[in-house]
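EI: anyone free to look at a 673-residue chain?
SC: sure, send it
EI:
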Amino acid sequence: MKKFLSLSVLCGGALVASARTAPADPAPEPQVKLGEFVVTASPLARAVDEIAQPAAVLGGPQLDLAKQLSLGETLAQQPGVTSTYFGPSASRPVIRGMGSDRIRVLSGGVGTMDASVVSPDHAVSLDPLLIDRIELVRGPAALLYGGSAIGGIVNVVDSRIPEEKPAHALAGRFETRAGSAAAERAGAAVLTGAAGDWAWRLDGFQRESGDVRIPGYAADDARRVELAAAGEPVTRGTLVNSASTGQGAGAGLTRFFGDAGHFGVSYSGLGTRYGTVAEPDVTIDLRQRRWDFHGEALQPVDWLRAAKFQLGLSRYQHTEFESGVVGTVFKNRGYEGRLELMHAPVGPLTGAVGFQASRSDFSTAGEEAILPATRTSNRAVFVYEELVQPGVTWEFGARAEQQRLAPGAGAAFAARRDTLAAFSAGAIWKLPADCSLALSLTDSERAPNAQELFVDGPHAGTGAYEIGDAALRPEKVRGADLTLRKRAGLWSGAVTAFVNRFDGFIFEEATGATDAVSGLPVYRFGQGAARFYGAELELTAHLVETKRSRVDLRFTADTVRADNLDTAQPLPRIPPSRLGVALDYRVGDWSFTTELHTAARQDRIAPNETATAGYGLAGASVARRFRLGGVHGELFARGTNLTDATARVHTSFLKDIAPLPGRDVTAGVRFEF
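SC: here you go
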């Protein structure tokens, strides 16, 4: 009942506000609307408030302030999103308590094709400095992107392949920044241009940081006792082996064919080296080289509105060094391609038919080669349809997918083939006072990956002896999301309630045993019935809006509960409830933000799991825009964890030994012309 009362307050506040007297300034700025951005994760490219699933877009100044060393930490304060936090460099998003192979991280609509799913100490192969925007879909998205999107999608857009002609023959942006907590020094540059029917882009970045300063001890109280008893060092004030360096560059070129469409290609390279935090003498050297292709044909034949294809080709390798000596080498070569055909209206229906194919050749060699060489192939076809009626829009979709795991050189397992299906239905009802109500229902499946099936051995990166189960069957999940949105007015935002019921949920759980040889605790993959449910809130009060000034008060909140229904016990590494509040003030060329993000104590834990204390993180930022001739500039400074509080991320394998960074001040300058 409380959830539905909060839904009523959101739109009820708008009805009350409509009766109030307008601000004294006769010419206020237009108020922010949820539909300003387009979500490309939808085949029909709808705005955020025009799709049934809960979605958000992070871009512009909001993204600039949120950018951290990793993708996971950049998104960690978004409603419903936490991170795997394996130090500042290796951090992957966790959505509604689900991570790993249930969250699809995409680069321009195509998978990153790295090894970040295999282990939390493996970084995602992209850098936030070059990101233009991030599209986030919370909840099952298997219809468009397969079973590995059963928990959600994070689509990173860098615009490396221009999809529209630039307005100027030459434009660009530059940024340099420095941070105090890790002695971070970073810079990035982007150049774009156009000549006739051609458009191009060049970009690059370089980053360097030292070991992160932390408040107090790295280990919590219980772990410090264990370390002291074992005669191992207890560090304080610094997160040892958290330094990193990184650099990357890319180039893209697009040919436009008038109103008929375009074709583009890009090539990019990324390299980074960082400490694993869990081991003081282990560093990872990551390298990726990637080709991407994108094309779109508009109205190629009468029965097609558009045809769009995307293709990514990747060569990935990362090497783990132990005291400077090569320990383990991970390699992955693969591709992923999509073709979407948007058909002309068929009666009242508009929609698309899509095809997707991918292949990954993954191998490991060395001391921690605990996974066999595996070739994973996926083939899928999907259909998505919309029916628009007065006051309501209906959405329907279905997907058929086949995944095949084949043994690579030296692997001793039989090939496995899984056939999967996904179905979705949704509706968006228009309500008074600029409100809408969206309902999304899904029925999806996910096949187990090679790690869950075949891993067997000590993994120092997670501090565990991991054991897979070759008999695991595909997961099945049925889910529902109910979202109330308010587009404009004194109040805008969204509140969502969700529930997901799993049959055969796969998870890694501590057994309580210790491996006799390595001395590491044993974690085993198993499966059972599970249920995830919770709620998310993002609400903004537009207190003042005039030509020169603006004041917004933002509230965010999320909570999730996840249970193993077979044992009536909580599932491991589920985030605690969180609450955030921020005040944004803009006047003339100045902008100011103060914010507080809190997390409750998480003591609802799985067997052999430890509790995590609650915390609050205070932050503030200031920016000043200026102009030098034809160049627009911005000076900025951002402070995070200003009270130097100790904060441990419950979804991290390293929460007992790796807290979040202490007080940090990052300052820099941006130029755009």
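EI: Residues 2-16+38-368+381-672 form a domain with the Maltoporin; Chain A fold (CATH 2.40.170.20).
SC: 👍
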